[in-house]
Design goal:
The chain is 62% helix and 4% strand. The chain is mainly α. The termini are far apart.
């Protein structure tokens, strides 16, 4: 990538205040309106309430991407505004802002680095090499296959991650005081929100409104995170060969989604560009991608149909330079 292209990309890094504010209004407005509608409908029809859980979950995903941008200080220009919005988003996503910001920052400096694997928070993007897998004992190979079974990690685990795991400051040293406070602070805030709701409407209604949408959002959200890194053409590098540019353009995919799904996912499918320049806000990623097509042409493009097949790619084959499924047993 030449200097002129780097300069062109940098022009998209500056947040745009009015676009950011409009994103907040046009997303949180419908989210709050749907919340009210679902609580009202819960007394009338379970099925109508469950139907609304589909767009409700989409808004949860979009709000998570806002929180993600705030963690990079890219949504607004002012760091304070990013922190305020990030913490507000955490009330919807159930994800502690400061804790997740640190966890995610490490992901950006170790993505697709063979020498920096094994970080628990990167479970959904990490992998063994084929040679490492074949060197395991039969029992350990079986356990690894079970723990990385697509049905388990993409359907059963996601809800547990958001409901249980993120209520604890796992893998967070005692010295990370701010991150640990964010976990406990969010837990307290959720008690103050959901306690009165349960008192007013009953626990069955609260679960009907929130649990189906959270289940859908967590499954899709973790799938989006995983598919951007564990696809057949994804490249892994040793520490000596790793660069941010190489990992971004060859270790991240471009998930080409229909316009409506792009909106709900806040263009996180333009993941290669996000890893290349994390300071570009979500609302400028697509424009940057379109403006830099020559550079972006080297990135693996996945359609939605192709992306649905990627969970089967579980191991990095160093000899063939590609991700592969588990070998037949």
């Amino acid at each position: 990538m030449d200097a002129a292209e780097q300069a062109r990309i940098r022009t998209f890094q500056a947040p745009q205040q009015m676009r950011a504010v409009w994103q907040v209004v046009s997303t949180f407005g419908p989210y709050l309106a749907l919340s009210v509608a679902m609580y009202a409908l819960a007394k009338v029809s379970v099925w109508l309430t469950l139907l609304l859980a589909i767009p409700y979950s989409g808004l949860m995903i979009r709000i998570f991407i806002f929180q993600h941008d705030c963690g990079h200080n890219s949504f607004f220009s002012a760091p304070l505004h990013n922190r305020i919005l990030g913490r507000a988003c955490s009330l919807v996503t159930l994800t502690p802002f400061a804790w997740w910001r640190r966890v995610h920052a490490r992901h950006h400096v170790s993505q697709n680095n063979l020498d920096l694997r094994g970080y628990p928070a990167d479970f959904y993007t990490d992998c063994l090499t084929l040679a490492e897998y074949e060197a395991l004992s039969p029992l350990k190979r079986r356990l690894y296959r079970i723990s990385h079974n697509p049905a388990l990690i993409h359907l059963l685990q996601p809800l547990l991650v958001f409901l249980v795991l993120q209520r604890l400051p796992f893998d967070t040293p005692l010295s990370f005081a701010a991150e640990r406070r964010s976990v406990y602070g969010l837990n307290l805030a959720l008690l103050l929100i959901f306690g009165p709701l349960i008192y007013l409407f009953g626990i069955k209604t609260v679960l009907l409104v929130h649990l189906p949408a959270l289940t859908i959002a967590s499954i899709i959200g973790i799938w989006l995170f995983s598919v951007q890194h564990r696809f057949e053409e994804s490249q892994w590098f040793s520490q000596a060969d790793w660069t941010q540019t190489g990992a971004a353009l060859h270790g991240s995919s471009y998930l080409k989604l229909p316009r409506l799904l792009r909106w709900f996912s806040a263009d996180i499918g333009t993941h290669h560009l996000h890893h290349l320049r994390p300071s570009i806000p979500n609302y400028r990623l697509h424009d940057c991608h379109e403006a830099c097509r020559e550079t972006m042409a080297v990135v693996t493009t996945l359609t939605l149909a192709e992306a649905l097949k990627t969970p089967s790619f579980a191991l990095w084959d160093e000899k063939r330079g590609r991700m592969v499924p588990f070998p037949a047993e």
